[in-house]
Structures are given as structure tokens and as C-alpha cells.
Write a structure and sequence with these properties.
Layout lengths: L5 E2 L3 E5 L5 H8 L2 H6 L8 H19 L3 E6 L5 E8 L7 E7 L8 H15 L5 E7 L3 H9 L3 E6 L8 E7 L4
Parallel strand pairs: 5-6
Antiparallel strand pairs: 1-2, 2-3, 3-4, 4-5, 6-8, 7-8
């Protein structure tokens, strides 16, 4: 099946696939990912391929959207990922993003997340979106606020002991 890709001024966002295993392995093992999102037990490139195949691809096939690899147009560098997630045990969908440390604080996260948020509302028919973030993850909270999401409460995700902030936004073009 042909899935949508998206562009911004500096970025290409395309569905993550097994050829992105090196990126996913590196990303899921960065100190921020481990501290704020959690250990996904992706300890090798092979584990990353399996994670993509078993965790990311099924949602893409089912809904037509999911996790996108963020690629810098200028040189083809894979910077991180951004996507819309339909989590098991959670009502609705949420937006998420993560960049490799060397690409943080350059506006790429906001640029990618803005485009994915627009696609959610205008192309995928999503009317409400959440985001979850660690209370300690100030940079994520700031990015969510720049995207227009407002903190609306706290929650615990299934099988997780950490209380997270919940941010929400609705499509204003309803």
C-alpha cells in the first residue's frame, strides 16, 4: 500500500520502515528516551527491525498513519521520528516526537510535529489529539505548547507507574 509522506521547508517525513532500524536503535537508546519514555528493550539493530515490524507497521497498515522518520532534505540525514499513535488501552490518538541529541534545539522537532499535527486534522480526519509527557521533560512540554496543545490533566499510561502530564488540542476547523 502507498502511505502518505509529508514535506516541510527543511524536512521529509515518511513512514518508518525496517531500513530505519539503525535510527530507531540509536533513538530508543538515547539518554532522554530512556529517561522520559522508557526502555523498549531494543538492544540491537535486529531488535529495532523487529520493533518497527511488530510495533510500528501494524498501526500504519490499520489506520494509514503512524510513526514517521524525520529526514533533513539538505543531506538526507535521519534526525529522529514524529508521529500519531493509537495506543492500546488509551482513548484517542496522541502525537509524539523524538530527535537524536545532535539535532535537538534547531527547530526540527517543532517543524516536524507541526506538519504531522496539520496532517492529522486535515488529511486523516482526526478531530482531537493528546500528548503525554513526563513532568520532568520541560523541552517536550514547551514544544507541545508551541504546537497549541494545552495541559489538561495528568494520567498513567497502561503498565506504567509514572504519572504523566496530558496535553490536548481539538481541530478548530470543525
Amino acid at each position: 500500500m502507498n502511505y502518505k509522506t509529508f514535506e516541510t521547508k527543511r524536512l521529509l517525513l515518511r513512514p518508518t520502515n525496517p531500513q530505519d532500524a539503525d535510527l530507531i536503535f540509536r533513538l530508543l537508546n538515547t539518554p532522554k528516551w530512556l529517561a522520559y519514555i522508557g526502555d523498549r528493550n531494543v538492544n540491537s539493530i535486529e531488535d529495532a527491525e523487529a520493533y518497527i515490524t511488530n510495533k510500528m507497521t501494524p498501526q500504519l497498515e490499520r489506520l494509514g498513519y503512524g510513526n514517521y522518520t524525520v529526514i533533513r532534505k539538505e543531506d538526507g540525514s535521519k534526525l529522529g521520528s514524529c508521529g500519531i499513535y493509537d495506543r492500546e488501552g488509551v482513548e484517542g490518538v496522541d502525537i509524539g516526537f523524538a530527535l537524536l541529541p545532535e539535532f535537538e534545539k534547531k527547530g526540527y522537532g517543532l517543524e516536524a510535529a507541526t506538519r504531522i499535527k496539520e496532517a492529522a486534522f486535515s488529511e486523516f480526519g482526526i478531530n482531537n489529539m493528546q500528548a503525554y509527557t513526563s513532568k520532568k521533560n520541560i523541552s517536550s512540554q514547551r514544544l507541545l505548547e508551541k504546537l497549541g496543545l494545552k495541559q489538561t490533566g495528568t494520567t498513567f499510561l497502561p503498565n506504567d507507574e509514572e504519572e504523566l502530564f496530558v496535553y490536548s488540542i481539538s481541530n478548530t476547523k470543525l
